Amino acid sequence: MLSRFAGRKLVTLFVIGRKSGKTYAIPVAYTPYEGGLLVATPFAWGKNLRTGEPIEVQFRGKRKIADVQVIDDHPGVAQMYGVIARDNKQFASFNGIGYTPAGDPDQRDLNRIAAQGARAFLFTPH
After folding, report:
1. Which pLDDT tens digit goes with each residue over 95-116?
2. Residue 82: which CATH number?
3. Which residue from 29, 78, 79, 84 could staple onto 114, CB 3.0 to 4.6 Å apart?
4. Highest taxon of the source (predicted)?
5. If DSSP codes are grouped into helix, strand and coil, which group holds residue 120?
6. How many domains does the chain have?
């Protein structure tokens, strides 16, 4: 059973497979960022998302359309993973992100993740 805290940090993305055409419901953790929902993943489903192509999301119990901004450049991905890691220690642990003695996400880990092809996404629900 998910805790109330976890439930408040989850959004469900309804991703349509480019080849299969099937819709997949994918629950993911998000971080509020610049008026949107920031999500990052190393998984292949992220390749089905494109900037400018809206997606359906379920956020706070309501299904909505959201604009998508894909962040796939190395500096941008490292920066967004850092933003999420500061907000969500479980996300950091899952992705192998350590912290410096000052408590900041380790830049070497962020660069490694970006170099491995991870992506970040900013969803803006309407």
Report:
1. 999 999 999 999 999 999 999 9
2. 2.30.110.10
3. 78
4. Bacteria
5. strand
6. 1
